[in-house]
Amino acid sequence: MLSVCNQIVISNRYSLLMPYEKDLNSWNEFSKKLETVEPPYFREQEIWWIAFGTNIGVEIDGKHELFERPGIIFKKLNREYALVIPITRTENKIPKIHVPISCAGIKKGSVATISQIRSMSSKRLLRKAGVLPLNQFAKLLDKFMVMVSTADMQVTD
Q1: Which of 126, 83, 135, 76 is nearest to 105 (CA)?
Q2: Residues 62, 124, 29: CA angle, nearest 5 degrees
Q3: Which segments of 32-107 are extended strands (E)?
């Protein structure tokens, strides 16, 4: 089944046509196979090719037949569960949410998108690509802490 959205209503006076297609059925079939695999051993600071899947809205999708993209193991919660940060390449780098990274096995100009951090089963880890240098991992942690501590939030009783 292809999911098609061709109109986004911005207000009751304006709308924007934006056709796109997402192959949700193929991702569903692939994710059933992932459910049967034994999770690999992994550690924080490692970069893996991860089956991010087909997601909703502005969430970063995986690509190709394995629905994959590189990601950083930000926090290992246990043997089967981790917080991961997807890696992408973009021309529109936003300093608050994109942290430049460079590592063997990752394309030049890549950024970690800290606003897209998510918890994932380690069954989604497909293959290890490398290890992020400690100084870059520390910068990633600092940027993450700034992002979550300076959120524009209003406290109400």
Answers
A1: 126
A2: 70
A3: 46-51, 68-78, 81-89, 98-100
What architecture (CATH level 2) is domain 40-149? Roll (2.30)
Q: Which residue has the tokens 């970069």?
A: 47
pLDDT digits (tens, 9 = 90+) for 24-78: 777 667 677 777 888 889 999 999 998 887 666 666 766 777 678 899 999 999 9
What are the structure tokens assigned to 58, written together? 């502005």
Does the global pTM surpass 0.90? Answer: no
The two tokens of residue 6 are 């061709």
Reduced DSSP (H G I as helix, E B as strand, rest coil) percent helix, strand, coil of the chain, to 5: 20, 35, 45
Q: What is the spatial distance between Cα 9 and Cα 4, in angstroms, rounded to a whole number?
A: 15
